Amino acid sequence: VQLQASGGGLVQAGGSLRLSCAASGFTFSNYHMGWFRQAPGKEREFVAAFRRYNSNPYYADSVEGRFTISRDNARNTIDLQMNSLTPEDTAVYYCTADSTLILSSLRTSSAWDYWGQGTQVTVSS
Questions:
Q1: Signed CA dihedral, 72, 4, 9, 33: sign only
Q2: 5 pairs with which residues across the strands?
């Protein structure tokens, strides 16, 4: 399983960024896919996810209405469109995949098996 995240960068508050994660080495459509983030000195936290075979996205309360996750099973990618960014969104963003987790564990980082290398998002005030 390989997950390659890209699209991070420096943006001013109120701006937008789009992250992309390219997946390979597994049958993409059979996996739950998601994004987590980790700010300095903080634990890794859930951002958004899709469960496999389910088109309904899940979001953290802190990003609901500002971030949009999308999944393309034909291209084996998941994207995260981030709008109205604030300095509190500054973190390393990680793409993640798993084939066995249950719904109650979706927001728990330790429940996910596979992780990409992360991409830095920095929002200046």
A1: positive
A2: 21
Q: How many angstroms separate the CA atoms of 80 and 83, rounded?
A: 10
pLDDT digits (tens, 9 = 90+) for 50-69: 999 888 999 999 999 999 99
Which residue, 119, 124, 123, 108, is CA-closest to 47? Answer: 108
Q: CA separation (Å) from 87 to 10, 20, 30, 69, 122?
A: 11, 20, 35, 20, 7
- Four-CA torsion 59, 63, 61, 105, nearest 10 degrees: 40
What is each CA distance from 82 to 1, 3, 102, 104, in whole angstroms?
A: 25, 19, 26, 25
Name which of 62, 58, 70, 69 is nearest 107 in CA terms. Answer: 58
Query: In the predicted model, what is the mean pLDDT of residues 116-120?
Result: 96
